[in-house]
């Protein structure tokens, strides 16, 4: 490699075109210290033998390295100064060897191609059929232009948004449909609980003689309530409960009323605090209501079981 460097200092190509050395002034500085660029390594700078060496440029092949050397000096790819580029290319390969980096064989092949082009540029070239001299750089220029197009296309693709790099898929939070939200009944819940307390007190007055296990379903009780309210008139809140069913039967009826009010199938009103509570069905015979599933039922619709009497008993004293 040292034999190729000697003639470059006095080669006609370098002497005839001194302006080719001008791009060297535009090279990137090694570092910036106190705002001033450092173009050369200070002579008194001590670097330990075992110091960490970091290579910032990463090349994907010899064409990538060659294109980097050309673009770094703002050279025209159609008029490559082969002598200068070959020198820089060989210097880079030697630096990699000194730092004990293993280079692929294709880097050495490119160095040989550059050396061949350099030697052919120094020799006289016979004209072709059209009377023009063949340019030894033509094939290399074509390969560089093709590689540059692919490289630019890859960089353009890399700027596009990429999943898991620029964007992250996130599941949208569940937002309930406002149009399906139902307003609670106008009657205060405390008033309904007071009325329920009165019904429970009356249910406690009944004693049970015979024990029979009955399954109570809130959904089934909702259908029974709608049947009792099918006339469209207002019914007293207390009249909808059957005290003989005991406390659990009263609770199931109360839950059925709450579910019907939530689904806007019944209307519950009260004229004033502590006044009687009335219930009216909003469903008509022409458009019967479809009973919704109750959140209080379990499994196959069985809500609970209770002890009921086969016959009403005498109220306790």
Automatic annotation (TrEMBL):
It comes from the Bacteria. It is found in: Cytoplasm. One of its GO terms (biological process) is cell division. Gene3D superfamilies: 6.10.250.2410, Structural maintenance of chromosome 1. Chain E (1.10.10.580). Residues 1-22, 289-317 are annotated as: Disordered. Keywords: Cell cycle, Cell division, Chromosome partition, Cytoplasm. One of its GO terms (cellular component) is cytoplasm. Belongs to the ScpA family. Participates in chromosomal partition during cell division. May act via the formation of a condensin-like complex containing Smc and ScpB that pull DNA away from mid-cell into both cell halves. Component of a cohesin-like complex composed of ScpA, ScpB and the Smc homodimer, in which ScpA and ScpB bind to the head domain of Smc. The presence of the three proteins is required for the association of the complex with DNA. This is Segregation and condensation protein A. The gene is scpA.
